[in-house]
Amino acid sequence: MSAVRRFQPDDPQLLADLEQQATQHGWRVGQYRDSLAAGYPCYGLFDDAGALIGFALIMRVLDEAEILNIVIAKEHQGQGRGFALLQAVLGELRDDCCRRLFLEVRESNTPARRLYQRCGFHQCGLRKNYYPAAHGREHAILMEASL
Ligand SMILES: CC(C)(COP(=O)(O)OP(=O)(O)OC[C@H]1O[C@@H](n2cnc3c(N)ncnc32)[C@H](O)[C@@H]1OP(=O)(O)O)[C@@H](O)C(=O)NCCC(=O)NCCS
User: Fold this and answer.
1) Helix axes 81-95, 110-118, angle to 10 degrees
2) Long-range contacts, 54-58 (Cβ 8 Å, 24+)
3) How does pLDDT run across 88-136, given as a tens digit for each residue?
4) Ligand 1 pocket member 71 (CB < 6 A)
5) pTM above the 0.90 mark?
6) 4, 13, 82, 121: which has the fewest Cβ within 10 Å?
7) Which CATH class is domain 2-146?
8) Is there a catalytic annotation at residue 104?
9) For residue 70, how far is the Cα from the chain centroid?
């Protein structure tokens, strides 16, 4: 069992560390520090012992929002945790009168794109050569969902 709740991490390093072992394209700790200082909502996925095993960071503007990042700890990936976390976040935003949601994702990030499609997102744009990649650059897929 696991639980999702909004929380304010005491130390942004907690988020950076979790992401660093989950993906090679992680944010710098300063990006987390700035986002939390700006008051962007953070939702955590916690295991039974209360340990953080995933999180989603959201930027909210009026009745729209953007998923800035969503991460599940490496050892918990591929077990439906990302789906559970995103479904809970979508429910919270819907209850809070959010109507449209946006995100961007690397073209090569198959797990994330499948997760988003399963949660009702569809592609609404493409930013060519947006992200630095191991060999050159790769496109960003822009996605949106109605709540
Ligand atoms: C993207 C991420 C949050 C998904 O969380 P997860 O718990 O691993 O995903 P789930 O187990 O809930 O599965 C969601 C979908 O992804 C698919 N998936 C999960 N792991 C996969 C893998 N390694 N390869 C291919 N598809 C995969 C699942 O099959 C499922 O799709 P389906 O419903 O069509 O079968 C997680 O993989 C992660 O933290 N990745 C690193 C950070 C990242 O890339 N974040 C997204 C930034 S835009």
Assistant:
1) 40
2) 54/18, 54/81, 54/82, 54/85, 55/15, 55/18, 55/85, 56/85, 56/86, 56/89, 57/15, 57/32, 58/89, 58/93
3) 999 999 999 999 999 999 999 999 999 999 999 999 999 999 999 988 9
4) yes
5) yes
6) 13
7) alpha beta
8) yes
9) 2
The pLDDT, as a whole number, for residue 56 is 98
Return mean pLDDT, the chain. 95
pLDDT band per the 50, 70, 90 thresholds, residue 1: confident
User: Which pLDDT score is estimated for 24?
Assistant: 86
| Tens-digit pLDDT profile for residues 42-61 | 999 999 999 999 999 999 99
